[in-house]
Amino acid sequence: MIAVVTVVRGRADHLARQRRVLAAGPDARHVVVGMGARPDLAGAGPRSRLVEIACDGPLPVAQARNTGARAALDDGADLLVFLDVDCLPGPRMLERYAAAAPRTGPALLAGPVTYLPPPGPAGPPEHGLDDHVDPHPGRPVPPDGVLLAEPRRELFWSLSFAVTAEAWAASGGFCEDYRGYGAEDTDFALGCGLPLYWVGGAHALHQHHPPARDDPARVAEIVANARLFHRRWGRWPMEPWLRALDAAGRVRFRPADGVLETLRPEPARPAATTPCTGRATPAPRRS
Length: 287
Fold this sequence. Notes:
Layout: E1 2-8, H1 12-23, E2 29-35, E3 47-53, H2 61-74, E4 79-83, E5 87-89, H3 93-104, E6 108-110, E7 113-115, E8 147-150, E9 160-164, H4 165-171, H5 184-191, E10 196-199, E11 204-206, H6 219-233, H7 239-247, E12 251-254, E13 259-262
């Protein structure tokens, strides 16, 4: 059984559109994890399971993904597809992930992502999505049905990816010390011990919205997560974002000196309550 895991707080229109597109595709279970607020699962959609977790600060995205995976596995899923709430599945995304899984052994399977432009009066597309596929140029795009091994783990992104139940168990899941926006997916890719493959034809389409990293409320989250990543891996994640924030006067970023700090007071950050698990444990610093 395929289970699509989506974590959400707000984004009601995005979730409703995603559910309608999933309902029109191959049979799959949809595990929706609400972070501190109950999402509306009324209307057209696939077979769904709602899971809720508490949220008293920055969104616990890593914890929510782990929680959704456990729920999907409890329901008997053998292939987990993680799809962000602002992403629509391409017509063959689930089919391509399912076909790729037996060919790789335990692995991270990632598909190309198209960033849709701002919608017109009719709203974002829900039909004929193949006509809108224009994958982001920053990631490889193998031909339909082709698998491409990727040694650069830092290119992994969590908008759309798949793992078998066996691979998920081996990975140890996401490190739940990450809260809010940024770096938890790169940490997962580096720490999970799984090879990464790009799956040709497993397209997802990202619904347009302003980038979260441009939200002033997210700067402190980005800084805290980048510091955590640096402690675990001895290098900085998201360097282009951090340099842009430095140039805009919102943070001070001196990577050679190990300095990253906000230039405004940071909100209180709840202490981590769940340690990183499995292979996603603190790693030795790299030189």
